[in-house]
Amino acid sequence: MSELTILCDVQACAIIYGKHDTQDEVWPSSVGVQRTYTKFKTMLSMEQTKKHLNMETFLRQRIEKEKDQLRKQKKKNHEKEMSIMMSKCLIGRSLQGFNMEDLNDLGWMINHKVEEINRKMKKVNDELAQNEQSKPCGKNTTATSDQRQNDEHAASSGITYGDDDPTRPSATSADGGA
């Protein structure tokens, strides 16, 4: 009984008696039993019974919990089936043989995946834009797009230039600025 009161964080008492025993066993003590019993009796009847649970109520609650878990598992299984169906469609499998409900579910899943991809792309684009804004704009640290194009053209044609090579194509505008 001591372990039960500790594990469940409840107040409890026990009176144990037998047919052939002349003395009843009491836990925690006679005074403790009297105190717990008095406290219980002074509670409102609603408070006394609010945590009572008979076997029928317990089983109903357990059945409802299991039904809920079954519904969740069926939903997961259906989503996995739709993912498999979508994968098969992507490799060229025909949609013939699927019922209308499956096709509707497949359409919903495709729309959901497209929305998810769009959200991720927006997030990546926002991060890239934020990173571009936080880069320093020094003359020596960034190359103009014309310089990059010249460097790419030179690399693809096998030409190499040093940084101080006077024959390197310059990316200057008509007014002479970089």
Automatic annotation (TrEMBL):
Keyword set, alphabetical order: Coiled coil
Compositional bias segments (type: Polar residues): 128-147, 169-178
InterPro entries: TF_MADSbox_sf
Entry keyword annotation includes Coiled coil: yes
Positions of region (Disordered): 128-178
The keyword Coiled coil is annotated on this UniProt entry: yes
Sample GO molecular function, one term: protein dimerization activity
Coiled coil: 56-83
Annotated protein name in UniProt: MADS-box domain-containing protein
Organism of this sequence: Malus baccata
